[in-house]
Hints:
The protein has twelve helices and ten strands. By secondary structure, the protein is α/β, with parallel strands linked by helices. Helix 5 (95-104) packs antiparallel against helix 8 (185-193).
Amino acid sequence: MQLDPETHQMTAIVLAGDRTKADSLVNHSEANAKAMIDIDGLPMVRRVLNALRSAKVVDKIFLAGPEEAALNTDQPLADWVAKGEVNWRPPESSPSTSAYNAMRSLDESESVLLTTADHPLLTPEMVNAFGRQSLADDVDVTVGLAPHALVTEAYPGIKKTVLRFSDGEFCGCNLFAFITPEGRRAASFWRKIEQQRKKPLVVIGLLGWSAVIRYRLGLLSLEEALAKLSKRLGLRIRAVILPYANAAIDVDSISDLMLVKGSLEKAAAQDA
């Protein structure tokens, strides 16, 4: 059934658990969890939640992680959880497992928008653009991408995992939508490939050797890759190309953290 992108709302899930206890970024920041790293006076996860709370396409918010002790170090966040404005659940053994189990707890009628706590430049505009296009596409699953050229224009020299297709080069945006009950099957697939998520060639390999050869030769298009993945999973999967460089910026390293802080300082100076 086609959903109305102007009126239909989605349930957002934010993945905020730590992948490992030995995280150099967390140690550098002296935070007690990656999601709680301070960026200009706000924990990183609260910046993401602020964007989701202000986005019209989002109805409810579920937060998977951080651990309760870490969450309670930020009073506004703890208050949101206590009041039921944000539904918190402890993190699982991996982000993909957290996502899988969080979705299992929801009613099948709910469309899900999934993102991560290390996405501090996320804005309501980005969330609405991604969510509404996802709902308008009449598919089961969408994935947010940004043109690589757009990202490097805004951040020259940035190191990002790049998906190089014949019809363009793209960066992931840590934005996913599971529109239909059937679409949630993709979360199970994600659990299988999570450890390889930053190795495009390995992921393409799951589509068959012909896809690998075409990808290596620069002949595989994004549309063809998604069509092959759709066929493999028995789902309708589409990309939403976002015109925002900041949608592709996540914080996985100290250099990423410095880049985000610099971007926010620049934006503040322009607004002054």
